[in-house]
Structure formats: structure tokens, C-alpha cells
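Technical note accompanying the year-one report. For the benefit of new consortium partners, we illustrate the data format agreed upon in the data management plan: each record pairs a sequence with a C-alpha cell string. No post-processing was applied to the example shown here.
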Amino acid sequence: MERDDPFPNSSGEIGKRIGLIADLFQSRTEAAAVAGVSVLSLRRYIAGEQNPPFVALSKLALAKQVSLAWLATGEGAMFDDQVRSAAAEPSPCVDTTGKAVDLEEFVFIPRYNVKAAAGHGAWPEDESPRFSMAFRRYWIEHYLRVDPAQLSVIPVKGDSMEGVLNDRDVILINHADAEAMNGVYVLRIDGHLVVKRVQRLPGNLLEVKSANEAYTPFTIDLARQTDDFAVIGRVVWFGRQIA
């Protein structure tokens, strides 16, 4: 026996309302990160293929000052005057010295638990990010010059890139840069996610090398690539904890 629908007028109708809120964000990727779900799950909610969890709805409503009752049931006004009034006077955000911080100066990039170098499987579009990492908006836009919605953070596992990227480092990936010319990239090879240094060679070949000389370099014929190979994106930053 199927469970009763938790919302009185779903799934297509609530999907339309979720779509309206998602369009208030810079991208569907950003909306999914705020909701704490994957982009794939968000698409399913909007298409009416899957019922959204209450927590995801509440996060979306709060982020855009939308009436939660309207979002869940379609009743009442989309924008709750009480919510807007409360949002007009936000609680101050301060740093550890007590100095006020403007959150608009930051972008929050989703951090996934999938590991590059010894991880398994394709890029996890159906996996929710564990949390977000804050980066200066100015740095993202003026130095990296990338769309924040095309960025994600994952940890590194293994010693194949030891000396360049160590075990437990975290890396920032630009998914928009998937041509794999020259640099450090995250690749999917035979169902495994790996982070390697790559170099484009004549003949449409891609040389894949590790920083650790114990690992043998190899080449990939891009003209014959299959579904078992994909360029996930270029590594544009890393962070490391000093033990």
C-alpha cells in the first residue's frame, strides 16, 4: 500500500512552486546546495517525480523569504509579510574578533564526500553535499574568473599525487573546464575518480601522470573514449591541514 502524500496538492503543483523559488537563485545548482539536496533530486521535485522532504522546503523558503505554507500547500501568498519583516532586520554576522561580516562578500561552495584518487563511481549528482565552504566572491570572480555555480569541493585520498596533493587535502574543482589541456584535473576512468596531472599530446592523446614516481604514466586516446572516461573538471585550489 502506498503512503499518503504528505502534501495536499502535490506533486506537480508543488513542483511548479519549487521551480519558481529555484529560479530566484543564480542557478539550480545554488538552489540545490541551499536546500541540502543534489541537483538531480531538485530536478525530480520540480518535475513532480519525487516528493521533497520538509527540511529542503523549509531551507528554500527561508533563503528567499517565501511563505512555507504557500510552498507546501499552495495556500496564501507566496511572500509572507512576517517573514519579510523579520528578514529586513537580520541578526548581525560577526567574525571571531566581533567585527561585522557582510555575507554578500562570500560564495558558499558545496563540499561533497566523494574522494578523488581512490574514490569509486561517477560524479555523484544524486549525492547531497555534506556542507559548504566559504570563498571570497571577489577572488572567485576576479582571479579564478569562473561561475561559482560550476565549482565544488571534494577531498583527496591516496598518495599518487604526493608532494602536489596529499592525502586528506581538499580541492576546488571548476567543472566548466572539462577540456583537459594541461594542468591538474579530476577524471573518471573505469568507474574510478582520480586526480592527476594531464598533458595534451599530438594525435588527440592525453597523457596522465602522477606526482608520485611509483605510479606509471599512461595515455588516453580521446578519439576512442567511452562512457568509462570523463573529465570532471580542473583543480583550481587546494587546502591542507598542517598536523
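Partners are asked to follow this layout when depositing records. Residues 155 and 170 are 4 Å apart (CA to CA).
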